[in-house]
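Interim report to the steering committee. The following record documents the input for NELFB factor (575 residues).
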Amino acid sequence: AGLQELGVANGEDLKETLTNCTEPLKAIEQFQTENGVLLPSLQSALPFLDLHGTPRLEFHQSVFDELREKLLERVSAIALEGKVEERYKKLEDLLEKSFSLVKMPSIQPVVMCVMKHLPKVPEKKLKLVMADKDLYKACAVEVKRQIWQDNQALFGDEVSPLLKQYILEKENILFSNDISVLHNFFSPSPKTRRQGEVVQKLTQMIGKNVKLYDMVLQFLRTLFLRTRNVHYCTLRAELLMSLHDLEVNEICNVDPCHKFTWCLDACIREKFVDNKRARELQGFLDGVKKGQEQVLGDLSMILCDPFAINTLALSTIRHLQDLVGQDTLPRESPDLLLLLRMLSLGQGAWDMIDSQVFKEPKMEAELITKFLPMLMSFVVDDHTFNVDQKLPSEEKGPIPYPSTIPEAFTKFLQENRIACEIGLYYILHITKQRNKNAFLRLLPALVETFSDLAFSDIFLHLLTGNLTLLGDEFSLEEFCTSLFDGFFLTACSRKENVHRHVLRLLLYLHHKVAPAKLESLQKALEPTKQSGEAVKELYNQLTEKLELRKPSPAEVTETPSMELPLPTVPTPASR
């Protein structure tokens, strides 16, 4: 494999020599002398190895391996010493001499090492590597980057399995059987998340190559448009922050979203947008100049990341509670208005990228003047009820908790995306507070929401986690009827993900549910022929758990008599 080009004899030469000679043993000896290690002092030492029974092959192999290691070290050293032009000239000359041996397994690592240290491998050699699957697989990622940057389709083939793996990992977390209010989808910190395998692999594949980074972003935009899957937005932010962690300034300095993402990342870590960071974020949004509006498309994708939405929504709920205590209206709070602005930009990401109209979505005035005050009135209702409960009750009867919800609230949840998102997070908030009354009051509004957001995986994942805090309520018929019949079961037949989430919840809380209700739920949740494997698997797990809980049939035995037998007394003999 290329030895003849370098004037080195190979197996074919030996075969030809042996075919055409009269004395094979002499021919072999001559071949060994000509092609062995040309070191005079070695010749007298070789018979010593023969005496120890060490084969010549083993000796030559160990010498070869040692020389190869030395050569690899030398190549790495050349790549760091002297002037840039000189070192690369040496490496190019070495590549030219050695490339013909690239298919020879024992020499291949050296050739690959030379290519790895060259910032620009000659085009002809890159094409030869790309054309051979084994060579392509064996070459270092530094060489592959040079191939990928001019071959988007090939790079896409490499990235695609990683993107699929990433989405699958996110879905596995959302559908995990470990339901907990403390450890949920949003629990890992941003820094922990970007240590994940996919983000690390993509970061390594990109290196400092701006062209490859842009390609990955384009893949993510395209897939987000095609699937509407918001996890691609998460990956877009994680990838940028992973490069930020490694201080890859070649990319961070040219990505216009870098500083905004960095600031938002700090907010996500704290799960709250404080006043200082809110002003920074506002500065970035206000700083988008005329003619650069396209950056809004990328900013909206960063804000569409579920971790960003979660942080913004939690901050909004917290602000609303503060406003209740301050007797202040939502429209009078600049911080709250900024949170809504960013939520609106994030929720409008798909429409903006799809239409290519890079303009901030217009905020509906009624969201601020009607919907948010309505949410604040619910907070006031809770406070009022709690105070009433503590007052002495001699002079008055028990005051019932408000059971009706304004029609406008339901309408907002159906027609306004931002209102729906905030409304859902308010419901998560009251569930986490174990506020059963408020939860049952607002639950009917969730049956019909904007784009069925109440039946999205992220909301149901969080809701099922929070419902574990209300575990004792599952023994009550009224609570179960409202939750299962009034909400979950309305969508189970048409949405498989809802079916899965209900089964997850029951797997965790089945022992709390009344037996009669559990039996009817088991019938209602039985998978159909069209159900996926995940639903069938969960249902089987639930059935097994319920079977284990059934009391074993008691053995039929005669009931022992409770009467004590009287001792027989002999009759006295008649006299």
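The radius of gyration is 37 Å. The committee is asked to note this result when reviewing the revised timeline.
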